[in-house]
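Usage

Read records sequentially. Each one opens with the input sequence:
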Amino acid sequence: MPFRIPKRKDKGAGYTALDGRWVDGDKERLSDDDDASESGNATPMLRRASGAREATSYPLPRRRFTRYFTLIIVLILLGLGLTLARLSALSEASLRSGLSKPPPPPPTWESFPFLKRYHGGIRTLVSRAENKPEFPDPENNTLESTVQKDQEKQTAPSEDKGFQKRHVPQGQTFNPVKQDGIIECFLNEEKKSNVPQLLAYSGVPKGFPDPVMGSYDIFGLNGDVCFDRFGRLGPYGLGYSKRWGGSGAGMDGEREGADQVWGGKTEIDYREVNWAQAQQKCAQKNKNRFKPLPKARNHFFTDMPVGGPEDKPKREEKQEKKLLARQAVVIRTWQDFQYDDEDMFYLRALVNELSLQSGGEYTVHFLVHVKDNDLPIWSDDFTYQRVLNDSLPLEFRGMGTLWSERQMSLIYGGIAETNYRGLPIHGAYRSTNMPLSYFAHMHPEYDFFWHWEMDIRYTGHFYHLFDKVGKWSDQQPRKGLWERNGRFYIPSEHGSWDDFKHMVRVQTEHGTAHKSGMYEKISGNDNTQVRSQPPIWGPQPPTGEGDRTETENDPQPPTTPDKDNYSWGVGEQADFITFNPLFDPHATNWILAEDVTGYNTSAGFPPRRTAIITASRLSHRLLETMHRETALMRHSMFSEMWPGSCALHHGLKAVYAPHPVYIDRRWPTSYLAAVFNNGLHGASGGARTSVFSDERQHNFLGTSWYYHAGFPGNLWKRWLGYKVDGDGGEMEEVEGEGRMCLPGMLLHPVKHVDLIYEHREGE
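and closes with the structure output:
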């Protein structure tokens, strides 16, 4: 029998076990699941082999946690990237819009130390000649020396510790009115009662600063006397009880010498005073001192008579004596103004010092704004008088005139409504001079009108100020006048007034290296940076196509500027007197420079001049010119720009009176002069760098005369004996140098003075 070799199985279907058996792989795989739990059917060897195989195998780890963790990280990174991209876009957008600019650094002047001797007391008085003013200090006239001196002063021992308390000196009556030909006027003709003269003290407190701008001497103002609160305001109700007709304020605190001002007289009961009646009787008693009254105008726009008022032809009559001009003091107020006792001190002083004590040289009026245009004040006399009476304190009734914006739109109709900055052209803000111009038109008996405000205060005698400023202005020559008007006079830097005039002439004739704007040098011609500026000589009418003005009555120069020896204008009464420079708003960043209505501005604006703060003296000629320009030519400008610009166009005489202005910090005067006269060719205006540009007006905050200054109100309240920012008050006066004593200082603004009153039983 032949030898048979067994046929091999496919290697892929099985394998030879260690004991020599052939194991079918397919059957094993099929039986793995069924036999896994049946340990009895498995051989020990197979169980050991299976165990060996399990011991040497490596299963893959779980991946679910890793995947989730990775996904979270990716999402976080993606969100962070998107957030950073969004923040970057927002930051770029805010930078472009200017919203996220870093705050600007504080102004340089905020690093200057405060002056302390404004608060000096009445027990330390010395004459001006003997006084060593705390400021200006010629030895410390740079930024570095100012800061260094302040540091030395803080570390040095105080000089006040050696102060020896003295008694209050004897005051003296202060009456600046020349009594020649004046018939005495009284508050009450039957009782022959009048207000006592102010009480002044010789000298100023030791170390009292000098004015940084302006001067007493050039006007002839007496700067070597000072006034405490009782000597200045005592005659008008401060310091005595309400039961005697006073205010009831100033009853407590330091009162040594407070009653000197009365000189033994009885206090005035202001509950019985009628100022309108007293003012009228005073003017009537002294009428021979003044020019004859012209025919009064009636209110023909409401009376509707046949025709209008006729003006009598003027007759030239020879007068043996020079007759005085009548002047009106027009106080701008409004219907619902709340008059407190401190306001009453101010108003009583104005009427008494300007009208009664002068023998009727001035007449005080209230120009009352009725803000409700729907109030029927023109319906009948009863309604008009009722509203007027309700608008003024009882003692001032009979001295007011009502006006409304609707009335102005009737009188000055046809003027274009430009709605500049969202405000109406006939509104009180943009056209303050409209009611004043119409008031002057209806009152031809007055030659001059003092435009005054409710938040002005003067620590001296009002007649002294008005009279000296008016007479000085009338003596100013026309040559170089507009150029001097545009600059601050800083005596510590400019020297005497004659030195200042010479400096202005040189700057005008030869120019300076000052650029009027940041782009001026683009022309590439450096020679244009130093050039002369033609002086203003005669009228400067607008040159826009179609612009018309009435020029037949405009004053003309008698000769050319080079032939005039500073004689034209001397003795000529000023048409416009301001208490801030008349600056050129061209090229400045003054926000209201373009509030010009009725002129052709396609090729540029007409010549303009602006004086911040409307307080001023205006002639009847100027106000009548403004009235006709607005009513007939439809011309107007912003309130603080219109009078000066109108005077410039028509060649009228305008004067900036550099009255004494004080500042609350130790500015280096060279730096101060550079800041305040930083306009074109050394002027205060005419360039973007002007101190009147909006971004630079913060430099006025510490001065005693500017519309938003903080120093005037603080100084006035300290002078009244109250604490301000934790300083001053009763104890400081009693234990220290006594009450503050200030020379004549014109302050603006002074608002919301809260007086402290006596406590009365039952209150």
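Summary fields computed downstream for this record:
- The mean pLDDT is 88.
- The first helix runs from residue 25 to 35.
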